[in-house]
Amino acid sequence: MNAQISCPSKITHVTVHARGALVRRQVAVPESLPAGDVELLIDDITPLAEPGSVRAAAPAGSRPIIAVQSALIVPATALAVGPSEARVHELEGLLGRLVLETERLQGQRQSLAALQPDPGLRTTSLIEKVDERVADALATAQLLGTIQGELDVRLQELHSQQVQAHKELEAARLAQAQASTDTRPDGERHQRRVTVRLGGGGPLSQLELLYVVPAARFWPVYTLRITDNGRKATWLIEALCAQRSGEDFREVRLGLSTADLIYDARLPELPSLRLGRAQPPARRGYRPPPEGLERMFGGYDRAFGRARPPAEPFIPEEQTELRLDEAAYSLADSEMDDSDDGTVTARHAALPSKGRSGAVKKLSKELEQARPEAPPAPKASRARLPASFMAPAPNRATSGYGAPPALAAPGPPAPGRGGGASPDERARRVSSLGGAAPEGGFGGGGSDQEEYEPAPEPDRGAQEPQDAWLDFDHLSMAGPGDEQRRGRLTYGGEGDAGPRQRAIAQLEELSPSERLTDPQGSRGRFDHRYDADGLVVIPSDGQPHRVALLCAETVPTLRMLTVPGERPEVYREAELLNPCEAPLLSGPVDVYVEGSLLTTARIDHIDRGGTLRVGMGVEDRLRVARNVRSDEDTAGLLGGSMVVTHTVTIELSSALGQPSTVEVLERLPVSEDKSMTVEFVAARPEASPYTQAERGAPIRGGLQWRVPLAAAGKAKIEYQYRITFPARTEIVGGNRRD
After folding, report:
1. Residue 562 falls within a domain, yes or no?
2. Using CA atoms, how far apart are residues 408 and 287, in angstroms rounded to an integer?
3. Measured in whole angstroms, how far is the alpha carbon of residue 491 from the centre of its chain?
């Protein structure tokens, strides 16, 4: 027996991927270990960890690690609920008691309101004391009114208490939903124990455990702070992290990775072809289920009433054997016929007493034809009725007999001689009526002591497992009630992976904001890891928590941008180089100017060294106005062409207290028709071509001006372009293009 030592551990590093997280634990190993093989037991591992992902790492030159095993440990004591869940249960019980008391008092209130005190005076009586009886009636009415008033006060108090309890219950449920799943003491929750077996000889100064928790994800977010009148900018990379691993990440080193957590990089194996002598087939690790597997469940089927082989229903001893003529006499009172679906119906037409002998003969012949092929009946002077003509056996769960088989729901015709129901069909009818088929069988003369024969095993074909069958956490074996899967391993059951799948589904449904972007869709063709500068805390509550990763300072370039052809507004935009040594993912960015939140913009993914542009909203102190004048004329031989000259005037005005530069963007019309030409005439001031390639959406015919504006100054831009096309044609939507 190897020596076993329990060792505590602590989470030190966590790498959160787009889906899932890699957790690293530092194990506190004793300074002196006994000689020989030693087993280190680490018990404080979350049960939601992937058991097949547990790894152990030790420094080079230390004791060798022979094996690493993990097992789920269930505490011997009952699990205690957390404080948030206990508070919810307490408030639910309180609210239930308030509702019951309210219903009880309302019933009393209604009963008292229905009472009407009546003195019971008789108009013909001269000796009754009218004043006393009236006084008693008034006193009774006053008493009822007093009691009803007290009930009304109490009902009002209960209503107020219910409203308060509802509010507290909603708050408690919200707190429970946001509470950490790592709130129970270690001795009162499920744990996963990891056993690390060390070889003998050598010291062990350090030991780390690595495992995967699948219920974790993150969304990138950013913060831009512009200060010193736009001459300084601080870029902060942050993230919203959510995890439901069953253990809190307290003061850990955090890293965010865009790479997939598990990626199969194995090369495909090509089968080899050998020429020569025949080789024996390769041995496989898979073995089919043993023969006769269904016989193992024979006792269960007999005990719990599975669909059993045909058997006769139980009939009381005094009714077990009847004379054939007596049976025919009792059945002849209701004319019997076999319907097309194999069931027996009755038309309740009583036969006259003189016709009973003929009915007996006719019924005897029908009984002989409807009798299924079975071993001969035991010798007796009296015959048994076919099972389809008898009442079903009483249900074991209830007392009494079920409905007659004649009232069974019609079904498809069963195979059999003369259209009669087969034994299996009759057993199905009895079961549908609430009766349990007994073990004797439904035979005309079968023995009640016949041995039970299980159903033949279904042919499921080859079940050679693939790679997915090596995922043992998703393999399960169904119970004896499942006839198709019992006794066989099947893939896809929850098993130990059920809680992990539910935690993953909860995080997949999480959508904190529409502005957030999933890194799986915005990472592009690169993978990078972002490491946090400090320690972070991420509770295991399934809610997003904002954590800071790193920050960098840069010098921004503030731009005033306007596109008068689209909107008569001037926008502010901060342009800066990517200050980080890493690419940036798509996500929202909060822009602060001099400590005040200005706007929340969105950026697309940016490569390392790329240009970052962040919109800062509209500059209301800058105005722009655009006017277009269009002139039409003819040109060419005999006026065969139409010439439309456009003069565009753009006026800018500033109310700023400092000089500024406004970037004006315009675009000339573009045509693919060879009979139409667009010619740029002139511009004051001169314009430069603009392609918009830096935004990833190149255009043709773009023009750009950089117009300086003095404090409270004005400026003007004017340019012309000419469109020439055949005079007999017209541009769709009008010849004027602005």
Report:
1. no
2. 46
3. 20
Measured N-to-C along each axis, helices 324-332 and 356-370 cross at an angle, to the nearest 10 degrees, of: 110
Structure tokens at 31: 């300074």
Tell me the C-alpha distance between 699 and 117, whole Å: 94
How many domains does the chain fold into? 3
DSSP string, 32-85: ---SS-EEEEEEEE-TTS-GGG-EEE--TTSPPEEEEEEEEE--SSPPPPPHHH
Sheet of 207-213: strands edge to edge?
A: 55-57, 207-213, 21-27, 9-16, 249-257, 529-538
Q: What is the pLDDT of residue 496?
A: 59
User: How far is 485 from 713, CA to CA, in rounded Å?
Assistant: 85
Please report the pLDDT score of residue 73 as a whole number: 80
Q: Does 388 reside within a domain? A: yes
DSSP-derived pairing of the beta strands 216-227 and 587-593:
parallel
* Domain span at 113: 83-118+139-178
Model confidence pLDDT, tens digit, residues 414-453? 333 334 444 444 444 433 333 333 333 333 333 343 444 4
**Beta-carbon contacts of residue 707 (< 8 Å; ≥ 6 apart):** 652, 661, 662, 663, 664, 685, 715, 717
Torsion of CA 176, 178, 181, 185, to 10 degrees: -60
pLDDT at residue 283, as a whole number:
66
Residue 685, preceding peptide bond in cis (omega within 30° of 0): yes
Locus of tokens 């003095």: 710
Q: Which residues lie below 8 Å from residue 295, measured CB to CB, with a gap of 6+?
A: 454
Using CA atoms, how far apart are residues 615 and 224, in angstroms rounded to an integer?
A: 11
260 within a domain of the structure (yes/no): no
506, 181 in Cβ contact below 8 A?
no
Burial class of residue 184, CB neighbours in 10 A (0-12, 13-18, 19+): middle
Question: How many CB atoms within 10 Å of residue 690?
Answer: 18
Q: What is the predicted pLDDT for the residue at 219?
A: 93
Q: Among 178, 198, 230, which residue terminates a domain?
A: 178
d(CA 480, CA 264): 37
Q: For residue 413, is it within any domain?
A: yes
Tell me the HSE value of 45 on the side-chain side, using a 13 A CA sphere. Answer: 33
Alpha carbon distance 121, 569 (integer Å): 92
Using DSSP bridges, classify how beta strands 344-346 and 336-338 pair: parallel, antiparallel or unpaired: antiparallel
- In degrees rounded to 5, what are phi and psi of residue 221? -140, 160
Domain boundary among 392, 417, 432: 432
Q: Measure the CA–CA gap between 335 and 340, rounded to whole angstroms.
A: 16
Predicted confidence at residue 315, as pLDDT, reads 45
Give the chain's residues under pLDDT 50: 186-188, 308-357, 359-360, 363, 374-462, 464
